[in-house]
User: Which sequence fits this backbone?
């Protein structure tokens, strides 16, 4: 009989036989056996935990996708605002140039009017 740590071989307990088609028993300390039902319960709990974790991961993935979409939309809005700001800046430069020419024209008119009124 093979040696197993913690096996109660001195008390006449033999190693359980494994039958993969009928019933599994695992030898644990003290010669007690864990039945298939207990293993089935453990496997079911692991499966339920795995399914719950998968669902949680899927929910988080959906949230990340929604956030990515929002960030993408906000990025597009930022580009649109940047373009609008650039247009306003260009328009302001043009406006300043027009005001400068208008000021020069008004100064010439005032100078002309003053010179006529003095004469």
Assistant:
């Amino acid at each position: 009989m093979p040696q197993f740590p913690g096996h109660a071989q001195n008390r006449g307990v033999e190693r359980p036989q494994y039958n993969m088609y009928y019933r599994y028993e695992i030898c644990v300390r003290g010669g007690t056996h864990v039945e298939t039902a207990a293993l089935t319960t453990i496997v079911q709990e692991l499966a339920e935990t795995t399914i719950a974790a998968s669902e949680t991961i899927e929910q988080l993935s959906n949230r990340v996708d929604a956030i990515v979409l929002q960030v993408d939309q906000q990025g597009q809005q930022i580009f649109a605002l940047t373009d609008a700001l650039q247009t306003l800046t260009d328009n302001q430069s043009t406006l300043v140039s027009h005001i400068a020419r208008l000021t020069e024209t008004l100064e010439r008119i005032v100078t002309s009017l003053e010179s006529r009124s003095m004469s």
